[in-house]
């Protein structure tokens, strides 16, 4: 069993992931060059966003559901 598999099998993993999603906290984040284009591209592929591109001052973020129980954030830094 790999270390990643062992971590996922730990009894605390499922409630931890569920708590992150319930609170709207992304599991991880990726920087993109153009968030509007990436949001449009992913949406066209059927990706469900829980937060559309939203400006937060010097950064714009969007959050998507990865269908595996995680929220993933994409962001563009101004």
What does this structure look like?
This protein is α+β, with helices and mostly antiparallel strands and 78 residues long. It has a single domain (3-77), classed as 2,3-Dihydroxybiphenyl 1,2-Dioxygenase, domain 1 (Roll). The protein is built from three helices and four strands. It has helices at residues 3-9, 13-22, 35-44; strands at 28-31, 49-55, 59-65, 71-77. A hairpin with a 3-residue loop joins strand 2 (49-55) and strand 3 (59-65). The longest helix is centred in the N-terminal third of the chain and has 10 residues, at 13-22.
SSE topology:
Elements: H1 3-9, H2 13-22, E1 28-31, H3 35-44, E2 49-55, E3 59-65, E4 71-77
Parallel strand pairs: 1-4
Antiparallel strand pairs: 2-3, 3-4
In brief, what are we looking at here?
35% of the residues lie in helices and 32% in strands.
The ordered H/E elements are HHEHEEE
CATH-scheme architecture: Roll
The name of the CATH superfamily reads 2,3-Dihydroxybiphenyl 1,2-Dioxygenase, domain 1
Terminal-residue CA separation? 42 Å
Which regions contain 5 or more consecutive residues with pLDDT less than 50?
A: none
Secondary structure category: alpha+beta
CATH topology: 2,3-Dihydroxybiphenyl 1,2-Dioxygenase, domain 1
Number of helices: 3
Strand fraction equals 25-35%
Strand order of the largest sheet: 1-4-3-2
Mean pLDDT equals: 93
- Please state the overall shape, judged from the principal axes of the Cα atoms: elongated
């Amino acid at each position: 069993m790999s270390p990643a598999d062992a971590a996922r099998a730990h009894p605390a993993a499922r409630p931890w992931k569920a708590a992150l999603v319930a609170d709207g906290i992304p599991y991880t984040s990726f920087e993109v060059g153009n968030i509007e284009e990436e949001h449009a591209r992913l949406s066209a592929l059927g990706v469900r966003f829980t937060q559309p591109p939203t400006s937060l001052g010097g950064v714009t973020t969007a959050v998507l559901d990865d269908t595996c129980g995680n929220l993933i954030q994409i962001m563009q830094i101004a």
